[in-house]
Amino acid sequence: MSNPKKVMILDPSPIFRRTLSKVIQKSVGQVEINAAENFDQARKILKKEPPDVVFFDIALPTDNGIEQIAAIKRLVPRSQVVVLTSHDSAEYESASLQNGADYFLSKERSSGLNLIEVIQTTVHQGGRASGVSTVNRHDLHSRETAE
Questions:
Q1: DSSP letters for 100-133
Q2: Alpha helices of the chain — where are they, by DSSP H?
Q3: Strand 103-106 to strand 5-10: parallel, antiparallel, or no bridges (unpaired)?
Q4: Is the pLDDT of residue 125 over 80?
Q5: Which fold is adopted by the domain 5-136?
Q6: How buried is 137 (Cβ within 10 angstroms: 0-12 exposed, 13-18 middle, 19+ buried)?
Q7: Band (138; pLDDT cuts 50, 70, 90)
Q8: Residue 110: which residues within 8 A CB-CB, separation 6 or more?
Q9: Is 60 within 8 Å of 39 (Cβ atoms)?
Q10: What is the pLDDT of residues 48-72, one digit of tens each?
Q11: What are the residue ranges spanned by the domains of the chain?
Q12: Gap between the Cα atoms of 29 and 42, Å rounded
């Protein structure tokens, strides 16, 4: 039996961390999930238990989330970073992708199916989602559509 995938959720909201954790567990089954509310907590976890995937809200109250994407990639270069945020603008999207995010998803605009496909692809399969209407750094022209 293979080792379970490791996931980190970095989000200031305890409710969102719990909810996303449940969605990930239901979507992919066996997975180890660590959660942090700020980058100081996250850094300790990243060093101790490097995750395969980091779900990350750039809206951190005490840190510049955009800059922290690059810090995550330096600490755990093989981890995929999925930005999942309410900061839904082209500027944040572009800056996130330029700093190393693999995906940028809007908490408001992304459908549940898009999120589940990204979860299944990044966590379960360890690859890239194809055909989801999300932005990833490998396809800057693919845009989410407001529904």
A1: T-SEEEETTTS-HHHHHHHHIIIIIS-S---S-S
A2: 14-28, 39-48, 65-75, 90-98, 112-119
A3: unpaired
A4: no
A5: Rossmann fold (3.40.50)
A6: middle
A7: very low
A8: 84, 134, 144
A9: yes
A10: 999 999 999 988 887 788 889 999 9
A11: 5-136
A12: 23
